[in-house]
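Box 3.1 A note on notation
Throughout this textbook, protein chains are presented in two layers. The first layer is the amino acid sequence; the second is a token string describing backbone geometry. Keep the layers aligned when reading.
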Amino acid sequence: MLAGWLLAGCAPGGWTAAERECIGNQPDVMRVLTIDDPADAAVLREKSRDLPAKALADPLYATLAAKMVVTVTSPEQDGVGIAGPQVGILRRIVAVQRFDKEGEPFEVYPNIRIIAKRGELELGWEGCLSVPDRRGMVLRYRDIDIRYTLPATGRDTTEHITGFTAVIFQHETDHLDGVLYIDKLEETETLRLEKE
């Protein structure tokens, strides 16, 4: 049912009526979709669309961005990143904790894409709010470039990201293409329950 709502026609402001309802009617800590629910899993496998300039200028964008940060930082989730599809919004938007910046702030990136990857792939443990209570080993780059839209100007900008923060960006942007980290496990037997 959720997927059908999200595909409804665009309303004024660049958001569908279903997106407006999903964002506006949820509490500040939004419900996180998980693979444990078949309807949620179907949404998590969809590809996300860009946010047009009128959607970024609409106050609903700021509401969504704030709610995504509140959700990922809530004690119930306590994550380091979250993507639009995880809260039922099939748009190219992610919130990422910037471990590479002073204070390690969470920042939101609309229309994000990874445009360059450099160096060697490195193996590391990953988990996901949408794949609860499990972790697995995934190969990721530690040196990337991202491109995203600045909401204030509507212009695209690029940024160079390294280290663990680059891993988070890759994990979250995968969500925007319907890809989960469990699809990229180096070996399926590395998937472990968090308690282990």
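Residues 59-73 form the longest helix (15 residues). The two ends are 35 Å apart (CA to CA).
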